[in-house]
Amino acid sequence: MAAWNSRGLRGSSLEEYINMTNEKYLLNHLGLIQKIPTPITPIKINQETRQITLVASLIRNLLGMGSLMGIPVCFDAKECAADTFPIHNIHEHQVEFMKEFERQDGIAFIILFFSARDEFYYLPFSDIIKFWERAKAGERKSFTYDEIDKSFRINSGKGIMIHYLETIQKDLDRREQ
Question: 3-state class of 130 per DSSP?
Answer without folding.
Answer: helix
